[in-house]
Fold:
Amino acid sequence: MRLGRIASPDGVAFVSIEGSESDAAARSDGPGGGSSRNHGGTREGRDAIAREIAEHPFGTPTFTGRSWPLADVRLLAPILASKVVCIGKNYAAHAAEMGGEAPQDPVIFLKPNTAIIGPNAPILLPPSSSQVDYEGELAVVIGRPCKDVPAARAKDVILGYTVANDVTARDQQRHDGQWTRGKGYDTFCPLGPWIETELDPADLEITTELDGEVRQRSRTSLLLHDIPKLIEWISAVMTLLPGDVILTGTPEGVGPVAEGQTVSVTVQGIGTLSNPVAAKR
Structure:
């Protein structure tokens, strides 16, 4: 199932996104995922339908009977997280480009949920930063409350997977020595375009484009700590709640964005998340 969150003339709703043309777009293996008007960089499916889910998408969703053509609604961030847990330096090549060795154990940090935005919402550059970088990532969405989850049972607590951009004020990250300020600005956690619940994340291509030029290209098989290990590690520290998001780390090729540019992150089997970049006024 493909789970999303939309704004329609009737309000905001969780939905199941259905339709063969939309499915083909989300499965696109190439960067950019084709052209789009408003669906996060994926091609619009003329026959795709957003079916309203009653209450929330956890467990076995039930439907209200209402639906809208996907082309007639606006995709929002697909989930409302209580927290976003991020993993630093989880690709060896990215650790090297940042000037250090890969850590032996997962390094975790948090983004506030106020940093979350959806497809096509602008990333706002804070005037206090001189370098804001993109970091394309695969994100995991938690499906039920959990604590002390062994890696062998990690799949049991996962709702699905989406695309993320761990936007970072790199100068402030270096200056502070800890990462909360540089990672935590409003708009610094784009998520979307939807959550894919039926996906094997072990070896997916992940690509980041800046204004159509490929800047990052790697595969999730190169993660130093895989998703089951990450869930075991994080849940030993904190309780994870339904809707919480884990950003699994970015590959090499990170770099700065500027006002007027567009950054697009594609994860094979999910789709493309695109966001324009604007200066905060």
The two ends are 39 Å apart (CA to CA). Residues 84-279 form a domain with the Fumarylacetoacetate hydrolase; domain 2 fold (CATH 3.90.850.10).
